[in-house]
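TASK: fixed-backbone design
INPUT:
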C-alpha cells in the first residue's frame, strides 16, 4: 500500500461550502491506494437488523443508499433514523421559512426511503445544533432505536471525522451506541469527499461496497427525490441547489465506501472474490463451446457497431492502440487498419486462439483478465484505448480499477473510446448507462469529445485532440 495511511491522524472540523469545487472526482478515483481496499458484496454486510443513522435528510441516501437498496431487496430489516429536520440548508432564503423547509425535507426523506425499500424515523432535532447537547442526542437515539434483539446488528453512521459538526457528533454517538448494543459499526463519508484530500483518508480502514446495478439505479432515484437539495428552490438568491453537480459526482459512483469502526474487523474477501472471478472466466470460455463466433461478429448489429466505433475516432491514424476485452478480434482487425500497432487484451484463452487465427501482423494478443491483465502494459504507451462491450461485466470496484489502468496507459492527448449495448442485462453487475456515467466523471479532466446514442448502441469518446474544421490533423 502506498501513501501514509499507517500514520493517519483524524482531522478536525473543516470550513467548506458546497459551492467550492473541492477535490475533483478524477483525483479521488485515480488514487492507486484504491487497489488495496477490500471489496465486499452488500450481502456480506447484512445482519439481522441494520440501523442507518443520518444527521440530515439525504445523508442516508448519499452515503449508503445503494447498500440499503440491496439489503432491503434481500429482505433485511433496515431502520433509518434521521436526527435533524434539515431546516438550515438554505439560511439565506427569503421565500422558505425553516418550518416550511423542514416539512418539505421530511416528505422528501420519506419518499427517498420508500424508493430504497426502508422506513424513515424522524427525531426532528435542530439542524446544525447537534453538538449543543450530545448526551441528549444519545438518549433520543436510544429511545428511537428498536430494542436490541437476538442476532447480529450493524450500525451505519456518518463518518466520525466528516468535518461537519452534526456529522461528527452523530458519528461519536453511533460509536457509543454500537458498543452498548454489541453491534458492528461502519461509517460513511459525505463531506470528507468535498474538503479533504486522498492523503487525509484512512485507507487502511476502508472497504468498497459493490452494489448491484438495480440498487445504484434506486439510489439515483432516491437522490433525485431530495429535490430541495439537488434543484434550486427558486431563482432568487439564497435558494440555490445545495448539492451541486460536482458534489453529486461523489455519490454517483459505482461503489459506496465505508470506514470500519474502531472495534470492527475488515472482512476477509479473498476467497469469495477468487471464486467469483473463476466463475466469470469459465462463463466466457464456455461461450465458445458452440463455435468460434459466439458474439455473431458478422451480424448487422456487430458490423454496424464496429463501423460506428472507427467512424467516431478523432484521428485518421494512431501509433499504439490498446483494445480492452478484444474477444475474438473482430474489432481489433478494424482498429489495425488505423494504427501502427494494436494490443488486444482478453481473459478468455479460447477467444484469443480464434483471434490469432486472423493472422494480423500488427496485432499482439495478450491473455489477461480485465482489469488485472493490463498491469504489465507499459505506462504512457497508448494513443488510443478502446473498451467495447466489456465494462459492464465488471463489478464497481473492478470498473474503477480499469479506469485507473486506462489513465496509466494513456499518453498525453491520448483518446479513450467506450462502446456498450444500451439494453443491458439483469444478470450483469452494471449496465451501459452506469458505465458511461462513471467514465464521464472519472475522465472529466481529459475532456469529453462526443456521445453517440441510438436504440441499441452507446459510444463515448474522451481525450484526444479537439477536432477543428479545416485542420488536416495527423496522417
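OUTPUT:
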Amino acid at each position: 500500500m502506498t501513501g501514509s495511511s499507517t500514520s493517519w491522524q483524524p482531522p478536525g472540523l473543516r470550513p467548506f461550502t458546497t459551492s467550492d469545487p473541492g477535490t475533483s472526482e478524477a483525483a479521488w478515483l485515480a488514487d492507486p491506494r484504491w487497489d488495496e481496499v477490500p471489496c465486499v458484496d452488500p450481502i456480506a454486510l447484512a445482519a439481522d437488523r441494520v440501523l442507518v443513522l443520518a444527521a440530515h435528510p439525504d445523508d442516508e441516501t448519499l452515503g449508503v443508499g445503494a447498500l440499503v437498496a440491496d439489503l432491503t431487496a434481500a429482505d433485511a430489516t433496515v431502520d433509518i433514523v434521521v436526527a435533524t429536520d434539515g431546516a438550515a440548508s438554505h439560511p439565506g432564503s427569503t421565500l422558505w421559512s425553516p418550518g416550511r423547509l423542514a416539512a418539505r425535507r421530511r416528505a422528501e426523506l420519506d419518499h427517498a426511503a420508500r424508493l430504497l425499500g426502508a422506513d424513515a424515523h424522524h427525531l426532528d432535532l435542530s439542524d446544525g445544533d447537534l453538538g449543543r447537547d450530545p448526551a441528549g442526542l444519545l438518549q433520543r437515539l436510544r429511545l428511537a432505536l428498536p430494542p436490541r434483539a437476538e442476532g447480529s446488528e450493524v450500525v451505519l453512521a456518518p463518518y466520525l471525522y466528516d468535518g461537519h459538526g452534526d456529522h461528527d457528533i452523530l458519528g461519536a454517538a453511533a460509536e457509543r451506541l454500537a458498543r452498548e448494543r454489541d453491534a458492528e459499526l461502519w461509517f460513511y463519508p459525505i463531506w470528507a469527499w468535498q474538503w479533504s484530500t486522498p492523503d487525509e483518508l484512512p485507507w487502511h480502514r476502508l472497504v468498497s461496497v459493490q452494489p448491484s446495478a438495480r440498487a445504484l439505479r434506486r439510489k439515483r432515484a432516491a437522490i433525485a427525490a431530495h429535490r430541495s437539495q439537488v434543484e434550486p428552490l427558486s431563482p432568487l438568491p439564497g435558494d440555490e441547489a445545495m448539492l451541486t453537480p460536482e458534489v453529486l459526482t461523489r455519490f454517483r459512483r459505482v461503489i459506496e465506501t465505508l470506514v470500519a469502526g474502531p472495534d470492527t474487523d475488515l472482512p476477509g474477501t479473498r476467497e469469495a472474490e477468487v471464486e467469483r472471478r473463476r466463475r466469470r472466466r469459465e462463463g466466457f470460455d464456455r461461450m465458445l463451446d458452440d463455435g468460434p463466433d459466439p458474439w455473431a461478429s458478422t451480424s448487422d448489429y456487430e458490423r454496424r457497431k464496429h463501423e460506428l466505433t472507427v467512424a467516431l475516432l478523432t484521428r485518421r491514424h494512431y501509433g499504439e492502440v490498446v483494445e480492452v476485452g478484444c474477444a475474438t478480434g473482430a474489432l481489433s482487425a478494424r482498429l489495425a487498419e488505423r494504427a501502427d500497432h494494436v494490443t488486444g487484451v482478453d481473459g478468455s484463452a479460447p477467444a484469443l486462439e480464434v483471434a490469432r487465427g486472423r493472422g494480423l501482423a500488427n496485432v499482439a494478443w495478450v491473455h489477461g483478465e480485465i482489469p488485472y491483465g493490463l498491469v504489465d502494459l507499459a505506462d504512457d504507451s497508448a494513443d488510443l484505448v478502446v473498451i467495447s462491450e466489456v465494462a459492464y461485466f465488471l463489478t464497481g470496484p473492478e470498473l474503477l480499477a480499469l479506469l485507473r489502468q486506462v489513465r496509466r496507459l494513456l499518453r498525453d492527448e491520448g483518446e479513450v473510446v467506450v462502446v456498450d449495448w444500451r439494453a443491458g442485462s439483469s444478470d450483469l453487475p452494471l449496465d451501459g448507462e452506469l458505465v458511461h456515467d462513471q467514465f464521464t466523471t472519472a475522465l472529466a479532466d481529459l475532456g469529453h469529445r462526443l456521445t453517440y446514442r441510438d436504440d441499441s448502441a452507446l459510444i463515448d469518446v474522451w481525450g484526444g485532440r479537439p477536432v477543428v474544421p479545416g485542420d488536416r490533423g495527423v496522417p
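COMMENT: The chain is about 35% helix and 20% strand.
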